[in-house]
Design goal:
Blueprint lengths: L1 H7 L4 E2 L3 E4 L10 H6 L1 H6 L4 E4 L5 E3 L4 E3 L1 H12 L3 H10 L6 H14 L1 E2 L7 H6 L6 H6 L3 E3 L4 E10 L3 E10 L17 E4 L19 E5 L2 H10 L5 E3 L20 E5 L4 H14 L4 E3 L9 H6 L4 H6 L12 H13 L13 H7 L7 E5 L6 H13 L5 E5 L4 H13 L10 H8 L4 E3 L8 H15 L3 E5 L13 H19 L2 E5 L21 H5 L2 E9 L6 E10 L6 E4 L19 H6 L6 E7 L4 E7 L2 H16 L1 H7 L4 E2 L5
């Protein structure tokens, strides 16, 4: 990009995340020759076009155009060759026009249904949401309004233009009165609705006075921004449109003028991880993070406690890591983690509660390997696990190389609905609308592909969509079709690449790997994973989907074995309940009398087969067991695994095999 600007002699300024350059899209009526001759005129133009330095997308602030770098160059060459009409067609095609539905919703809600605080008959609605703590002039200055008919609060996104003045580019409607207490607000949260649903081009708190300052505080909650703007005499605050779920590329140009950015998202581990990722996106040299030692976590809580917000903001630390550190650098972090162990565990699995007891949640920066017999349901299991996290706002990128995306989405939609959609098609539109709100992306690759192309796609997704969880199904499709290469060495290099990616990008990577061809009557072990020991050595977690055909049964019993757990070390088995109608492997909901759930419940089996295998043959004994006894059997087997080495030393050729469900 620099070479292009230097060669064409177009003026530009290199910012933190973007290049600022002339907006040539508004000169489609002029020939390029007139622009080229009058270089002074070009330099006098405001540099209102922002071009992202990473992916090349441009956004023109004054004319509302956006597109890719190739389009910008195309328009330039068309204007230079005096093909003005063709350039105008390209410009018109890339005009950022809001949909008619969004325009109608914004106009009707903002102008017809909203009232300012001075127009309210009483303070009941502000008190309901906790806004009664803020001065009335602060709510008025930031254009906070209320929908009395539905008891909602509206926070606007206003864009300021020297010619047009203040323009409402959208807003966030808050439904949940407990919204102000949330530290993490995910994109899938039902606490609020955004208009428009995407393509945000402004931030809550934008005003002309920010042009005179070089520092800003970014928050994930509008209440936090109001708190800082209410009492701070040194700092101003802006709020991200979707909380910590993502930092949209469209808002990066709005932050170019700030040389100091403080990120105050909270004091928990997840808040720090989000802040560190956003700091990389914004430029770590100008960012600082709040790691307060106070008992409060957010600016709104500090405001309620009458604390000095300026002193907290000034205590922000740099996210830049050094090659050498000492214990003193992390002493406070370690202490805070020891005091709040549950908070630091990770995003919990809601559908697989017993898996939480083993893995202690889903954490960024880890590598998980999933394996299981062919046809056992590895993709189905990983699909539901990823869906469980996506519902909680974990942005997910799926790389399904084995089955096509249409089949995968069909599976996930049925799991999301927890009902037999084939026989409930009248609910399809409702379910599909909610499913479409999930932060879920899918790669378009199918079959074998080059690992470098896949890695580049993953990097772009992490940067553009703030992806937190990447799933590769499965690893064998990324090893190419080369026959002269040692496949073990090739697989080791691919796994090392994913391990490095997970650590460098702070993203959780889940790899599905096929096992070796072994006796189908025996359970899989860590050594059963295809390839060398590299996969299990690099992995933080190893999950093995086990299945066994019960005695005199035609169906399989399934359970998930946690064979490696680097975070906590707790190993063991979790029973799975496969429902053929909903494709779910998680236990059915216990509460409520929903007929869809009740009709799909899988009855718990009463027979447990515990196998004790000897060197020559197997002796199987079957006992009748209740649910409690079944769990005791699992716990007993888990304890046996922890002393397996001691048993092997004194028991000769005899060993215990996992109890089958």
């Amino acid at each position: 990009m620099k070479l292009f600007f230097q060669r064409t002699k177009l003026p530009f300024v290199e910012g933190w995340t973007c290049f600022r350059c002339p907006n040539i899209l508004r000169h489609n009526s002029l020939s390029y020759s007139s622009l080229k001759i009058n270089k002074t005129q070009i330099r006098d133009f405001d540099l209102t076009c922002y071009i992202n330095k990473i992916n090349g997308n441009f956004w023109c602030q004054d004319t509302k155009h956006e597109g890719h770098w190739d389009v910008y160059k195309q328009i330039y060459h068309l204007q230079r060759s005096k093909r003005i009409e063709e350039a105008g067609e390209v410009i018109e095609h890339h005009w950022l026009k809001m949909s008619e539905t969004d325009e109608k919703n914004i106009s009707s809600i903002w102008y017809d249904e909203c009232k300012s605080i001075s127009e309210l008959p009483n303070d009941e609605l502000p008190r309901m949401f906790g806004l009664d703590l803020f001065p009335e002039d602060v709510l008025t200055n930031f254009n906070v309004k209320f929908r009395t008919r539905s008891n909602e609060v509206v926070f606007p996104w206003i864009q300021w233009n020297p010619k047009e003045g203040a323009t409402v580019r959208g807003f966030k409607v808050i439904h949940d009165k407990n919204y102000c207490h949330e530290e993490i607000v995910s994109v899938s949260s039902k606490a609020y609705t955004t208009y428009p649903s995407s393509n945000y081009h402004s931030l809550f708190g934008m005003n002309p006075s920010l042009n005179k300052t070089s520092s800003i505080v970014l928050t994930a909650n509008e209440f936090d921004a109001l708190a800082i703007n209410s009492v701070s005499t040194k700092h101003s605050a802006l709020c991200l449109p979707d909380g910590m779920s993502q930092l949209p590329l469209q808002v990066l140009p709005l932050l170019e003028n700030f040389s100091n950015i403080v990120l105050w998202f909270g004091t928990g581990l997840l808040s720090w991880e989000y802040a560190e990722c956003f700091a990389k996106k914004l430029g770590v040299k100008r960012c600082k993070l709040i790691r307060s030692k106070l008992p409060v976590t957010t600016a709104y809580q500090a405001y309620k406690g009458c604390l000095n917000l300026d002193s907290v903001i000034e205590s922000a630390v740099s996210p830049v890591s050094h090659q050498f550190i000492t214990f003193e650098d992390f002493k406070n972090d370690v202490r805070h983690e020891l005091l709040n162990q549950e908070t630091f565990s990770g995003v919990p699995y809601r559908r697989f509660d017993k898996l939480n007891k083993k893995l202690k949640g889903h954490r960024r920066g880890e590598l998980t390997v999933v394996t299981g017999p062919t046809g056992s349901g590895k993709t189905t299991l990983v699909s539901e696990l990823s869906l469980d996290l996506a519902v909680q706002g974990v942005a997910t990128l799926w790389g399904s190389f084995e089955i096509n995306n249409k089949r995968l989405l069909k599976c996930m939609l049925k799991q999301f609905a927890r009902m037999d959609l084939e026989n409930n098609m009248e609910k399809f539109n409702e379910v599909a609308a909610e499913f479409g709100k999930l932060p879920l992306l899918l790669m378009t690759y199918q079959g074998s592909h080059d690992i470098n192309a896949v890695m580049e796609t993953m990097r772009q997704a992490v940067y553009m969509k703030d992806i937190q969880h990447v799933i590769i199904d499965n690893l064998q499709f990324l090893m190419g079709t080369q026959t002269k290469v040692d496949r073990f060495l090739l697989q080791d290099s691919v796994i090392a690449g994913f391990r490095k990616f997970a650590t460098a990008e702070n993203v959780h990577v889940t790899l599905v790997i096929h096992p070796r061809k072994e006796d189908s009557h025996l359970p899989l072990q860590l050594s059963s994973i295809f390839g060398s020991a590299k996969a299990t050595q690099e992995a933080d977690n190893v999950l093995i989907l086990q299945q066994h055909k019960l005695h005199n049964q035609t169906t399989y019993s399934k359970y998930l074995e946690v064979a490696k757990n680097r975070y906590d070390g707790d190993l063991g088995n979790i029973r799975l309940h496969f429902n053929r109608k909903t494709l779910c492997m998680s236990p059915p909901p216990l509460e409520g009398n929903n007929e869809n759930f009740a009709s799909n419940e899988v009855p718990l089996r009463e027979n447990v087969e515990c196998s004790k295998v000897f060197s020559s043959d197997a002796c199987i004994r079957t006992t009748q067991a209740s649910d409690a006894q079944l769990d005791v059997a699992l716990e007993g087997e888990n304890r046996m695994k922890s002393t397996e080495a001691d048993d092997a030393n004194g028991a000769g050729s005899e060993k215990w095999v996992r109890p089958w469900l």
